[in-house]
Amino acid sequence: MNTSILSQGGRVVIPKEYREKLGINEGDEVVWTEIDGQIVLTSRLRQIQRAQALCARLFEGQAQRSLVDELIAERRTEAARDDDIVGSVGVKA
């Protein structure tokens, strides 16, 4: 357990061993969260990694779909349909 003293302006020094464990360096963004009367500090990178892991678990086992591929396929179908309509009425494009 480490202790720190709250200095003027509400500043707190994060002990070196915790900065190293969290991979926090000077200038990095950190996230403070209050949970059950305790303040929890995490790095922004760790928050992103946790969110990515959660999403991966939620979509695990589901087929990966590409919205871009779906849009391209839809556009090709519409273009083919338009070509058929134009060809059936004898209009030259």
What does this molecule look like?
This protein has three helices and two strands; from the N terminus they run H-E-E-H-H. The protein has 93 residues and is an alpha+beta fold. It has one domain (8-88): Ribbon (Pemi-like Protein 1, Chain: D). It has a two-stranded antiparallel sheet. A hairpin with a 2-residue loop joins strand 1 (30-35) and strand 2 (38-43).
Q: How would you describe this structure in keywords?
A:
single chain, 93 residues, alpha+beta, Pemi-like Protein 1, Chain: D, two-stranded antiparallel sheet, 13% strand
Outline of the structure:
With 93 residues, this protein is of the alpha+beta class.
Number of strands: 2
Global mean pLDDT: 87
Q: What's the overall geometry? A: rod-shaped
What is the helix content?
A: 40-55%
Task: Give me the Rg, rounded.
Answer: 27 Å
| Alpha carbon gap, first and last residue | 78 Å
Order of helix and strand elements from N to C terminus = HEEHH
Give start-end ranges of low-pLDDT stretches.
none
CATH fold category name: Pemi-like Protein 1, Chain: D
Q: SS-based structural class?
A: alpha+beta
Annotated CATH architecture:
Ribbon
CATH class: Mainly Beta
% residues in beta strands: 5-15%
